[in-house]
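Discussion board: Methods & Data

I've been asked by a reviewer to show the raw model output for two of the constructs in my manuscript, not just the figures. I'm not sure how much to include, so I'm pasting the format here to get opinions. Each protein appears as its amino acid sequence followed by a line of discrete structure tokens. Is this the kind of thing reviewers expect to see in a supplement, or should I convert it first? Here is construct A:
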Amino acid sequence: MQQITSKIHYVGVNDRNKNLFEGLWPLPNGVSYNSYLVTADKVCLIDTVEVDFFVAYIRNIQEVLGERPIDYLVINHMEPDHSGAISLIRKYYPDVKIVGNKKTFDMMRGFYGIDSNCVEVKNGDSIDLGGCSLKFVLTPMVHWPETMMTVFEEPGEEADSICRTLFSGDAFGCFGALNGGLIDSQINCDTFWLEMVRYYSNIVGKYGTPVQNALKKLTGVSLDYICSTHGPVWHEHIARVVDMYDRMSRYETEEGLVICYGTMYGNTEHAAEVIARAASEAGLKNIVMYNVSKTHHSYIIRDVFRYRGLIVGAPTYNTGLYHEMDVLLDELAGRDIKNHCLGWFGSYAWASKAAGCIAAWNENHLHFEPVGTPVEIRQSLNSETKAACEALGRAMAERLKG
């Protein structure tokens, strides 16, 4: 197994079979379930893996430990992709003490019926492993109520120095299996950056304030490694990943525009193209366009987190809003996204409802800054509605650039 520091080994597994993470989010590059062994005078296992991968997982653990027992199992997060192997670990290591907070154990009883040989910790508590220590930082609602992080301190390579590793749970994680390498300084991380944004925006995105609270608790802690439960071990790029989480949790964005539309016969798509062209001609460079019925919404949500501007348009359908657009707006509203600008347009054959439905979504749920004049298109574009679409694109570009 791969060694991270003199006392930390990686014992996680890769999942290249699952199509949808949590049954929701596409995994074109798979995902890793990361778990770590700390081998000091006492042995500590940090988190487990999804139970389907237990055969590979226990092999990894035994390759490091041989016949040596595990003294502690720290559970930073109770989602079953990280806690699913607890019961089987208990069968192999019956004397292991499970470390978590009160909410951890409330969930563990419900999921697995386990409530014995547990060590409850509170924020700031620590456990001595013999010349090394674990310190616990409670980070509730990043992104479940029991989430916490664990700081491991061990002697550094230089005299009197300390090496600090943060076992961060799902925080700082991303989609994507680990293809051979593990530590960021040893691999090409290009594929992971946008997948970190997609992971954060889809799974953690609603909880910006708890993420900010967690980051404040870590202020002043000098870290040498961040070991998340998904994706690479961060070492060389720690400053970058922390900065990304800081900006995303403050809903800070880049200058850019997401245009997403629903269309049945191409007329609404035509309007979206006109809007995009006008925004481009007004000097806006970062423009991405999505058909909400073709592109999985996780990618649209990712880019809404990246860019400040959003223009949405769809036809009227069954005297309401086109279904996939209705779903997308509901998904965006559920993430409490802030600091965004919104423009919209609707099309109809005989009942004008779409534009009004989008306006209601914004007024009642999204609360984005309205930009430009909404456009309503009857049947197809004419000279008047085409000019209105161009004006909407220009207005958004000017607002974003201004």
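Construct B, same format:
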Amino acid sequence: MQRIRTVVMDAVTHFNNDDGWAMASHVALSILMALFPFMIFGTALASFLGANAYAETASHLIFDTWPESIAKPISREVVNVLTVERGGLLTVSVFAAAFFSANGVEALRVSLNRAYRVAETRSWYVTRAQSLGFVVIAVLVIMAISFLLVLAPLALRLARQYAPWMESIISAVDSWRILVAAMVLIIGLTASHLWLPSGRRRLIDVLPGIGLTLVAWMAGALMFASYLKEFATYVSTYAGLASIMIALVFLYIVAAIFILGAEINAAIINARTRPTVVQDRQE
């Protein structure tokens, strides 16, 4: 218990002293600003490569893990944006969308560097290229899943026809979208903690913070959705801006939890190395 208390106090203290709340605000605003450019860039690239189901898949993967009261108005606007006809892939607007999407990744990098208490040693063009790579990989993953959207209903129909004894398993698979969204979220968190901040970390070093982040995200989302349902007055206060303000507050909560997860990892790493340092000094 003493070690757990020490780790928690180290993480919370560093979070407060190193402008964690301000960084959470920066991450939330950057992600919100990057959301539409990311979807526009992904749709343009998917259309160029023939993945026509990209828009629906991306909407599900991004918003299925959000509370419905928060996700519904935003996802509706996203779909409206994605259904607008655009020109070819190689346009200035699409490249600008890719650049602004990478800004969201850069905000995550800065917050993780602070949380892990490291200074960025890579050149700016290396980190920017990595951020663009994250964006492109995310788009390609969503495209691959969008192809499954076409194949999955056919596979389920054939399974029901030729293997009716597997109905219980097939019914469970019918809810695969939520499972896929959760898996993409976990993989994205792991990749962010391992490769975005400067320095090297092992998988075992980042798992505690990732687990805490997922549990806290679920609890925070449920509490915020309950608050919106019972007590919130965002609509009367912000009128037409209510959906944006709700999404921004939700992303602020998510970002703060994300940074705290990295702070927990850093505190655990420090707790592991501290006895070794003290022993070396005594020798």
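Answer (T.O., handling editor elsewhere):
This is acceptable in a supplement if you add a one-line summary per construct. For B, something like: The CA atoms of residues 15 and 34 lie 24 Å apart.
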